[in-house]
Amino acid sequence: MMDKYLNLSRLPNEVKLLLDLINENNEQAIFAAIDWDKCIDLMKHHRIYPLLYSRLKVNKAISLPSDVIQFLSKEYRRNTMEMLHLSAEIDEVSNVFAKQAIPLIVLKGPVLAHELYGDISLRTSSDIDVLIPLDRLETAEALLKRFGYEKDDYIQTILNDWKWRHHHVTYIHPQKQIKLELHWRLHPGPAKEPSFTQLWDRRRKSSLHKSPVYLLGYEDLFLFLVSHGARHGWSRLRWIIDIQQMLKLQKMDWMSLNKHLKKYGYHHIGGQSIMLARDLVNTTLPKEWKTLCTERSRALAQDALFYLERKVNLHASPVPEEVSRYHKWHLFSLMAPKQKLVFILSFLYPYPEDGETLPLPKKLHVLYFPLRPFLWLWRKTVRYAIRGSTR
């Protein structure tokens, strides 16, 4: 068992202040060294402004500059209206899917906010994420189109690799200004995860809605939040606070969860998540959970601080080259040994780029399997030659 704490010394003062505010630490000596514009920017980036505002309203001992309070108040009200808007849409979409007998699980949004915080206004969400079975995807897409949604991205694919390499497609409702992500997997492949049938059997009904709206079971929800946060480098403090809130609920069955963590290769990532929650937001760990705090989990948690030290936004394109290289390395380091092997072997499966390099009739696409190494080498050679000619 690993009890050693993380080294937080390289975190910027503004991040340390946010952690103090999250933890309701009344020590204000750090205020003199704060760039408040940067602090506001970080509040936006980490999506924690509604939670901070709610705590500062109660804790009058902490006094922030008036413009910071005004920002928090304004964003809190805006977010509350947005979450109510999304909540109504979830209700409507769930009813439409239910009438067509399409099982649907809501992954995040107001449903998650209500589940973890007991109040939809305390967590932000910019879209709706729902999970359905892969074999109902075509029907679901037609439904969303009739419902006013327009497909926002189109996946390039070859030999049906989209089914496992990708995990969702995005739709936009232009009138309602709502983005909806339709998932057929929890995460992009080739990661191992429970089947939809297993997730559906363990689903729970949301108490936020009167009509049937379902979310993941407690253990499945923890696995989803842990793997999602890890895949994004825990680059937003909101995701770490989500883990804290899950632990506070005390609704998970430890034996079942521990079994799931091992089965899907998430044991070390589970440890990473709770160590970040312990050291950053003062989360108390139940005794049995401390078995997850291994040396490897601690190393992964320490590595994740890279993203907090630099305010990394993996959704903003282009991602800086230094960050991109580090993130690729970090994602690989997160994998269990079997996952690393499957990941390496997945490179042998053809990519859409192979079809662009050497177009073949669809009935001959199977030839891309033996041709892939040569096509990959050809692209590398061409890119190297182009770089050399521009020097």
TrEMBL record:
SUPFAM superfamilies: Nucleotidyltransferase. This is Nucleotidyltransferase family protein.
